[in-house]
Every structure is written in structure tokens, then in C-alpha cells.
Specification:
By secondary structure, the protein is mainly alpha-helical. The protein has 2 domains: 59 residues, 434 Repressor (Amino-terminal Domain), CATH 1.10.260; 56 residues, no CATH class. It is 49% helix and 9% strand. It has 7 helices and 3 strands.
Length: 138
């Protein structure tokens, strides 16, 4: 269960690791020092400036709120499932041409067709046919 003081505890810990004061953090974020103090003491449980506080503390909002225990900036973005990792591995093993075809297929299946602009200024939408990829003028 998430501790009501999680944000404050983590802000305080990151400040100690970086050797910065509440006043310094407040100036970096553009808030008053009592705002930082209220978060640390638990009097305030969140802030609309949490993303800026996280950036100044060289971490993520996900770490400050307890969604992850890894304070590194890329931690939340790197939380891939084994299935996601398999997809990426297969994708990277494809030739550039096949990777592009998969990209078009995924966008099409997601309902987000890719529009290509050709050197002459015309736009084309790739259309996936049963055995080939065709481009139709948009």
C-alpha cells in the first residue's frame, strides 16, 4: 500500500542524494519553499508541479509517487513486459524494408494510417493488400 508520506520521503531522499536544499529545489521548480516543505512533511500529498520537481531531482514522477522503486529517469519508460521485449527483438531483426512494412501495418491496424509526402509535394497513403503494399494518392 502507498504510504501517505511516500512523495515527501522520496523528495527528501533525492534532495539528500543530490545535496540540495528545499530553498534551492523551490527556486529550480518556480514555487515557494513552503510548497516543498508541505510535500516533505506530508501536509500536502501532491502538487501540480510534481513533474518539475521530479525533473529537478533527476527522477520521474512515477518514482516520487511510488509507482516504481527505480529513481532513474528512464526506469518508467523501460518497464517492458517479456512479450514487449520479444516484439522489439523480432522487429530489430527485420530488414529496414520489412520494418517499414510492419510499421505501416501496425498504424493501419490501429486506425492511424501513415501519409507520405513525395518530393513533388503529393501525398500518398499506403494501402496494405493481401500480397503487397500499394500507395494511393491522398
Amino acid at each position: 500500500m502507498l504510504s501517505p508520506h511516500m512523495i515527501g520521503e522520496r523528495i527528501k531522499a533525492r534532495m539528500a542524494e543530490l545535496g540540495i536544499s528545499q530553498g534551492y529545489l523551490a527556486r529550480e521548480v518556480g514555487v515557494k519553499q513552503p510548497t516543498i516543505s508541505a510535500l516533505i512533511s506530508g501536509k500536502s500529498r501532491s502538487s501540480t508541479h510534481l513533474h518539475l520537481i521530479a525533473r529537478a531531482l533527476q527522477t520521474t514522477p512515477a518514482y516520487l509517487t511510488g509507482e516504481t522503486d527505480d529513481p532513474s529517469i528512464g526506469a518508467a519508460a523501460l518497464a517492458y513486459s517479456p512479450s514487449d521485449m520479444e516484439w522489439l527483438e523480432v522487429l530489430h531483426s527485420l530488414s529496414p524494408r520489412d520494418r517499414n512494412a510492419v510499421h505501416v501495418l501496425m498504424l493501419t491496424l490501429a486506425g492511424r494510417p501513415l501519409v507520405l509526402t513525395i518530393d513533388d509535394g503529393s501525398t500518398h497513403v499506403p494501402m496494405l493488400q493481401s500480397d503487397r503494399l500499394e500507395f494511393k494518392r491522398a
